[in-house]
Amino acid sequence: DGYEKIKQYLKLSGTLVSFSPAIEQVKKTTLALRENEFYEINTYDLMKRKYQVKPNATHPEVRMIGHTGYLTFGRKVRDVKNPYRERKPKQEEYMNLDGMPFRGEDL
Predict the structure, then answer these.
(1) CA of 65: how far to CAs of 60, 93, 107, in Å?
(2) Strand duo 65-76 + 38-48: pairing
(3) Distance in angstroms (rounded) separating the CA atoms of residues 52 and 58
């Protein structure tokens, strides 16, 4: 898929930004980013609001066009194994300082 190619061009900690005009595309993009090991995935909606700028009277125009789209961000990170999540050795794999295995009752 296209995300593997994109990851080749992104530097470590590089950010991918995607514009989507509809929420259905945001869902697809977010799921694809998760499947391709992107992290810190966030989506923001965009609002378009024009301002009238006048001396002593700056304010948004009365008429506002609401939603215009979504920006989704995802960060490429290096795959790092968490040493705290690795399996615990079996009892017979424990060794004492002399290199002798512990007996079950020694633990």
Answers:
(1) 11, 67, 69
(2) antiparallel
(3) 6
Task: For the domain made up of 2-78, give the CATH fold.
Answer: Rossmann fold (3.40.50)
Flag residues of the chain having pLDDT under 50.
107
User: What does DSSP assign to residue 69?
Assistant: E
Strand partners, 47: 67
Length of the chain: 107
Edge-to-edge strand order for the sheet containing 65-76? 15-20, 65-76, 38-48
Residue ranges per structural domain of the chain:
2-78
Q: What is the dihedral of CA 58, 64, 68, 72, to 10 degrees?
A: 50
The pTM (predicted TM-score) of the whole model is 0.59
At residue 88's C-alpha, the angle toward residues 84 and 93, to 5°, is: 140
Residue type, 92: E
